[in-house]
Write a structure and sequence with these properties.
heterodimer, A: alpha/beta, 20 strands, globular, B: alpha/beta, six-stranded mixed beta sheet, four-stranded antiparallel beta sheet
């Protein structure tokens, strides 16, 4: 068994915690111990084998272990986008690298501070979207909650400046495993944008991220969440976004998986009030030996809600992409309108893509559509482009890009689109010479 | 004597996947700069195959003969090199490409040609001016460039957009593969006007068509009748009228039972 499940030492239990939180963590620890890490025997983890981490000893995050300068982070900045930024280096919050100004009246706190200062806001929320952990990783996160960012947006507040949570894996010293818990509480009719951005300093940096983000969108709130996963090819990233949406709220989740050796991306919205809408937009681009596993679980627990899932995968080399799209419509979910589409493009003979739609419908008046396709680059389109003078490489790259473009177009932040488009193109085979305007 | 724009000598072609069927069986055709030729023929005669072979589609194998473009053998050139050298195929069925704007596509194509010619890329402003001028010449709405390549275009729009692309790329040999198919008279007239606006002493066209109708608008210098992979008769523009009147039957063709259709 890996060191992941080792009990944290007392040194990391410094803070005096409220009793309810202590209970929550203890319950998580107990569940983690009994569940263990997920194995491929679990249906939901059938294709994703965590034994890849066997033999790696992971350390706990330690503050000031590896001091970085602002210049070290410059290359991870999103051009033309002014953000408020919380930076974690190997899982430890860096106050000096963070700048959380300009997002008033929203309050941005470390989880450890928030449970003291905003206990009333968090007590009923923290962990409430993870009621029964299905696997040991969620439980492990609950038992640790190695800090995280809490964003509380008052009613009617519109926060223009996006908040970025940047996680940097340095690759220096022992590999670190961290289990952050972020919480976004969006008040009635408020609006906020949050980017979770995961990067590595070096190509061989090893890290293990097991993060959970809980989003509470009150009536009429609008939350746009981005998850930009650009870890090193030696890193592991398990991320869960769970949301609870009240009436008329609108939550957009955009996920782009580019890096990582093994990535598991869980998106779990619950539409809890009528006329809520959620968009689940994702793109995963794999090559080499990457395994990119996307597990969606959309729950319609109220009438008249809309959910839209659009995931696209581009797999090259020996990479493997998985999309599991579960839609649960409760009895209360009459007039549900749910759409799910999963499309994958394979660029090599050895790449694989698996799509698994799973519908559980308990209401009788619903509209649920789902579709999954797997294909290759269209040869007729390649010839069409070549007959206009484009080289075969550029033609293919443009067509692959075009396949993904729809997903970028759904993102409201144009600088993020540009960054991701550039990063994606850089990953395409022989795409040099392709310049794309986004 | 000037070098012909296009010279096809004893061209024999078969499908790579069906080598037992010879689709083109000894084509000879010479187009001088400034000339417009038309190839007419019944379904399955090999018209579209000829167009695709000229533009460099890889599904075919040339078993005999050669194709010279400005005196150079096309056999060694890939489709993109042929395009950059000035060969343009207006597709019978232009491909819809969601996700790529027409503007982006044409910018890439123009700059690919400039790179091929050893010229610097055109800046955005010059490109836009170029596109506007050609849009006006070919009578396509400039707004069309903001849409994705051929996506949701009507049949007429697609054919016009093909001709517009040829003008933008300033190609010297235009091969129009059934550009008249599926067009109403108005659309046919716009497409024809576009082609006529490009006719000059250097540029040549090869119009591939089933019907005489197109040739009333784009008047050819020569008309060739292609049947079962061979040109069995050539003549002036009056040959098209003769075909219109009598059909392909005098050439021993039963329109109901021609060769297996080739795309």
């Amino acid at each position: 068994m890996t060191s992941l499940l080792t009990e944290p030492t007392a040194a990391h239990e410094g803070l005096e915690l409220p009793a309810w939180l202590r209970d929550l963590k203890e319950a998580g620890a107990a569940a983690a111990a009994s569940l263990g890490l997920p194995t491929t025997k679990l249906e939901s983890w059938r294709f994703t084998d965590l034994r890849a981490i066997d033999g790696i000893d992971f350390a706990m995050p330690a503050a000031h272990q590896h001091a970085l300068s602002a210049a070290d982070l410059q290359r991870f900045a999103i051009e033309d986008l002014e953000v408020a930024r919380a930076v974690f280096v190997d899982g430890a919050f860096s106050e000096s690298l963070s700048d959380l100004s300009g997002v008033g009246p929203a309050q941005v706190l470390l989880l450890s501070d928030a449970v003291q200062q905003r206990e009333g806001d968090l007590r009923d929320k923290l962990g409430s979207l993870m009621l029964a952990p299905e696997d040991g990783l969620e439980a492990l996160n609950q038992s640790r909650m190695d800090d995280g960012i809490v964003i509380i947006v008052p009613d009617d507040a519109v926060i223009e400046r996006p908040l970025e949570i940047l996680s940097v894996c340095t690759g220096q010293g022992e590999p670190v495993a961290w289990h952050p818990r972020h919480v976004i509480v969006a008040g009635k009719r408020s609006q906020v944008r949050v980017l979770e951005h995961s990067v590595s300093l070096t190509d061989d940096a090893v890290g293990f991220t097991n993060s959970v983000t809980e989003v509470f969108a009150d009536e009429g709130a609008k939350v746009e969440h981005y998850f930009l996963e650009r870890d090193s090819r030696s890193s592991f990233n398990i991320s869960t976004l769970a949301t609870r949406q009240e009436s008329g709220s609108d939550v957009h989740s955009h996920t782009v998986l580019l890096g990582g050796r093994l990535v598991r991306n869980n998106v779990q919205p619950t539409l809890n009030g009528s006329k809520a809408h959620c968009l689940i937009n994702g793109l995963y681009v794999g090559d080499g030996e990457q395994l990119l596993d996307n597990a969606m679980r959309v729950r319609h627990a109220a009438p008249d809600c809309e959910s839209r899932q659009h995931y696209k995968g581009i797999m090259n080399g020996k990479s493997r992409g998985i999309f599991t799209g579960r839609i649960i419509v409760d009895k209360a979910g009459q007039q549900t309108d749910a759409v799910q589409s999963s499309r994958a493009m394979l660029l090599s003979e050895s790449a694989r893509a698996t799509a698994r739609p799973q519908l559980e419908i308990y209401a009788d008046d619903v509209k649920c559509t789902h579709g999954a396709t797997t294909g290759r680059v269209d040869d007729d389109a390649v010839f069409y482009f070549m007959s206009r003078g484009l080289s075969e490489e550029v033609a293919r790259a443009m067509l692959i890009y075009a396949f993904a473009a729809e997903g970028f177009d759904r993102m409201e932040l144009v600088p993020v689109r540009r960054l991701l488009a550039r990063e994606m193109i850089a990953k395409l085979p022989k795409a040099a010479g392709l310049s794309i305007e986004v | 004597m000037t070098t012909p724009l296009l010279e096809i000598r004893d061209l024999h072609v078969r499908l790579e996947e069906q080598p037992e069927i010879e689709i083109l069986r000894g084509i000879n055709l010479t187009i001088q700069p400034g000339e417009v030729h038309s190839i007419m023929g019944p379904n399955g005669s090999g018209k579209s195959t000829l167009a695709q072979v000229l533009s460099g589609k890889e599904d075919y194998e040339i078993t005999q003969g050669e194709i010279l473009f400005n005196g150079e053998d096309l056999a060694d050139m890939d489709a993109d090199e042929r395009a950059n050298a000035g060969v343009f195929l207006a597709f019978q069925y232009p491909v819809e490409i969601p996700g790529v704007s027409s503007m982006q596509f044409l910018k890439a194509a123009v700059n690919a040609k400039r790179a091929f010619e050893g010229k610097e890329e055109l800046d955005a402003g010059s490109l836009l001016r170029h596109f506007r001028a050609k849009a006006e010449q070919i009578n396509v709405p400039f707004e069309m460039l903001k849409r994705n390549v051929n996506e949701g275009f009507s049949g007429g729009e697609k054919k016009r957009f093909e001709i517009f692309q040829m003008a933008v790329l300033d190609s010297v040999l235009g091969i129009l593969d059934e550009s008249d198919s599926g067009l109403d008279i108005d659309a046919l007239k716009i497409v024809s006007d576009g082609v006529n606006s490009m006719r000059d002493g250097n540029r040549g066209f090869l119009l591939i068509t089933h019907y005489q109708r197109l040739l009333s608008y784009i008047v050819p210098d020569r008309v060739h009748v292609l049947v079962k992979g061979q040109i069995i008769r050539s003549g002036g523009k009056e040959l098209a009228l003769e075909l219109e009147e009598h059909g392909y039957a005098p050439f021993g063709v039963n329109e109901q039972a021609t060769q297996p259709a080739t795309a």
